[in-house]
Amino acid sequence: MSATNTSVSPDLVVDLERIKRDINTLAAIGFNDADRGIYRQAFTDADMAGKHWLLHRIEENDLEPASDGAANISGVLPGKSDASRVYVGSHIDTVPCAGMLDGTLGVVIGLECLRVLKAAGLELERTIELIAFSDEEGRFGGMFGSEAFTGALTPEKLLSAKDLGQTLLTDAMLAQGLDPKRALEARRDPARIAAYLELHIEQGPVLDQNLLQVGIVEQITGLQSWSLKLMGEANHAGTTPMDYRKDALMGLADFAHEIPRILAENGGEHSRATIGQAEVQPGAPNSVPGLVVFSLDFRDPSTDTLESLSQAFQKALAAISRRRGLKFEVKVQGDIQPVPCAPHLKDVLEAEAQRLNLRYQRMLSGAAHDAQMVGRVAPMAMIFVPSRGGMSHSPAEWTAWEDIRAGANLMLGTLLKLATSPDEVSS
């Protein structure tokens, strides 16, 4: 490919130093000296401090600040028409011991694009709204803010959602002075969402390994997250013969070894499955485990493949339980269907990437994003920037500043097209 040129125009480019300052300032909120990680989980004091910081930055840049009942934070740049808006955003909540870019980068770059457009004094045809969604990372199940935004949030989910420590979402919101019931009022009319754009680190190695500056996302993978129990019989480790045991941990070991076979027989090229958590009870060195509670996360860009994997996992659990004298229980905690990006928006992004002479490729997203929720009801597209070494959800995650500049200018040019040319947002 030819040499890089990240200018949108001679006069309209992002300010990388301003982006750096915002990223570093937000990274200090929730930072832990001991492990160098960021702890800004949803509806904690650190998360709320981040939201207040963002509102202040929006106000400082003469944008219109707002927040809704789900505590989504917005900044609005008005256009001539508000019949339908162009949205840009992501999230600023984090997993425990996070890095500084996941989610945050998309919000900071969205903010930067709006203030560049504001300072340019351009007359936009459409209003642009920056939005930072609440609890994308899943303290209470994930996608809370974008579910509320799209109308997918139900009273049942609102009232039943808990974190791993069994804290209710409603209690966490009340502790921060928020009225949980107002989250059900955060829905936007899909007919008034002209487009939603999100920039994110890739969270994988593809762009980095191929020395590319940006990725244009074709589709976001679907996923299911399960909480499972294998129930056997706790007994004495010394007096219980091996063939008498109903060992729940051995059942988990059997199931874990079945995963590669199930993926090979029922999955596809992009299928993934992970057991990320396991709790053994009674958890004593001299006791046969009578109960194992564990998680299963599996993903694929095909709805049919996800269903095939679901059935295969349940069949394996049933066979193992019969063989080892166990019982099993499956609770589906999350079910997010695959969502394609809007073809016309991908085309706009690609045309702009070519105009800027960027090294890019179209690609799949293997991680879930708020864009996935918005894409169910309105046109959506995503930009990826490289993750150094494929690292994410870790203090080690990083993206070169020049790649951040490239992605930011791609977003700026695309937003400008969408907000000034109504034809660009029509499918």
Fraction of residues in β-strands: 15-25%
Looking at the structure, the CATH topology of the largest domain is Aminopeptidase
The count of β-strands is 16
CATH architecture name of the largest domain: 3-Layer(aba) Sandwich
Q: CATH homologous superfamily of the largest domain?
A: Zn peptidases
Mean pLDDT: 94
How many domains is the backbone divided into? 2
The dominant shape is elongated
SSE succession = HHEEEHEHHHEHEEEHEEEEHEEHEHEH
Which sheet architecture does the biggest sheet show?
9 strands, mixed
Q: Radius of gyration from the CA trace?
A: 23 Å
CATH domain class of the largest domain: Alpha Beta
User: How many helices does DSSP assign?
Assistant: 12
Straight-line N-to-C gap = 30 Å
Look at the helices and sheets and give the structural class. Answer: alpha+beta
- Spans of at least 5 consecutive residues with low confidence: 1-10
Helix content: 25-40%
Quick take:
Zn(2+) 2 binds at residues 102, 137, 393. The chain has 427 residues and is of the alpha+beta class. The protein is built from twelve helices and 16 strands.
Features:
single chain; 427 residues; alpha+beta; Aminopeptidase; Alpha-Beta Plaits; nine-stranded mixed β-sheet; five-stranded antiparallel β-sheet; 16 strands; 35% helix; 23% strand; elongated; disordered N terminus
List strands and helices in order, with pairings.
Blueprint: H1 16-27, H2 45-60, E1 64-67, E2 73-77, E3 81-91, H3 104-120, E4 126-133, H4 144-150, H5 155-160, H6 169-175, E5 193-201, H7 206-209, E6 214-220, E7 222-231, E8 235-236, H8 248-266, E9 272-274, E10 278-281, E11 287-288, E12 291-300, H9 303-324, E13 327-336, E14 339-340, H10 343-355, E15 360-365, H11 370-374, E16 380-385, H12 401-420
Parallel strand pairs: 3-4, 3-5, 5-16, 6-15
Antiparallel strand pairs: 1-2, 2-4, 6-14, 6-16, 7-12, 7-13, 8-11, 9-12, 10-12
Helix pairs in contact: 1-3, 3-12, 8-9, 10-12
GO molecular function, one term: metal ion binding
Binding site for Zn(2+) 1: 91, 102, 200
Keywords: Hydrolase, Metal-binding, Zinc
